[in-house]
């Protein structure tokens, strides 16, 4: 579960059209590069239709052209965690390793709901979860929290 990277303030197009800031783009690039170096490979990326989430997903998958990216309307910020879980049930079975690119507050609410843990998730921070099928509240566990390496950090 990855909330989009740091975004620009609201503009005339509202929340849906907000873009990633330059800082947000760079942080997502660093996170993606560090994960690819570790052979991270999702089998499918499910992305919110909001502009900054689509940008985040594209940056995360830039070096992984074999990974399909699908827009999932249930990943918008005001979705309830149980509604997202119901939508994910359609995708979870055939895909063992999903990347979900969403927003706050949904990212935090979903992770807290599905794990029964309170996990802080700043922009551009990926929380790795493990769960069995069928999906159920409280059945997942956090297996990692990944942040972008600092700018200028050695590779």
What does this structure look like?
This protein has 155 residues and is of the alpha/beta class. 31% of the residues lie in helices and 17% in strands. The chain is built from four helices and six strands, in the order βαβαβαβαββ. The protein has helices at 22-37, 51-60, 81-92, 106-115; strands at residues 2-3, 44-47, 68-71, 98-102, 126-130, 141-146. It has a four-stranded parallel β-sheet with strand order 1-4-2-3, covered by helices on one side. β2, α2 (51-60) and β3 form a beta-alpha-beta unit. α3 (81-92) crosses α4. It is globular, with a radius of gyration of 15 Å. The two termini are 24 Å apart. 34% of the residues are buried. The model has no long low-confidence stretch (mean pLDDT 92).
Task: Briefly summarize what is shown.
The chain has 155 residues and is an alpha/beta fold. The chain has helices at 22-37, 51-60, 81-92, 106-115, and strands at residues 2-3, 44-47, 68-71, 98-102, 126-130, 141-146. Helix 2 links the parallel strand 2 (44-47) and strand 3.
Provide keyphrases for this structure.
155 residues; single chain; alpha/beta
How are the SSEs placed, and which strands pair?
Elements: E1 2-3, H1 22-37, E2 44-47, H2 51-60, E3 68-71, H3 81-92, E4 98-102, H4 106-115, E5 126-130, E6 141-146
Order of helices and strands: EHEHEHEHEE
Biggest β-sheet description: 4 strands, parallel
Class per helix and strand makeup:
alpha/beta
Q: Taking strands numbered 1, 2, ... along the chain, how are they ordered across the largest sheet?
A: 1-4-2-3
Say how many strands there are.
6
How much of the sequence lies in strands comes to 15-25%
What is the count of DSSP helices, taking H or I runs of 4+ residues? 4
Radius of gyration: 15 Å
Any low-confidence stretches, pLDDT <50, length ≥5? Answer: none
Average pLDDT taken over every residue: 92
In whole angstroms, the N-to-C terminal distance is 24 Å
Given the C-alpha coordinates, what overall shape results? globular
Query: What helical percentage do the residues reach?
Result: 25-40%
């Amino acid at each position: 579960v990855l909330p989009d990277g740091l975004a620009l303030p609201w503009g005339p197009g509202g929340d849906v059209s907000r873009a990633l800031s330059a800082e947000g783009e760079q942080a997502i690039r660093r996170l993606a590069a560090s994960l690819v170096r570790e052979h991270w490979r999702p089998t499918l990326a499910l992305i919110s239709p909001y502009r900054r989430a689509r940008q985040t997903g594209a940056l995360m998958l830039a070096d992984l052209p074999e990974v399909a990216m699908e827009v999932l309307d249930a990943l918008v910020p005001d979705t309830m965690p149980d509604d997202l879980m119901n939508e994910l049930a359609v995708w979870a079975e055939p895909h063992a390793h999903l990347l979900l690119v969403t927003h706050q507050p949904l990212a935090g609410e979903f992770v807290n709901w599905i794990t029964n843990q309170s996990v802080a998730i700043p922009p551009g921070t990926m929380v790795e979860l493990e769960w069995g099928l069928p999906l159920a509240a409280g059945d997942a566990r956090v297996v990692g929290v990944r942040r972008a390496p600092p700018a200028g950090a050695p590779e």
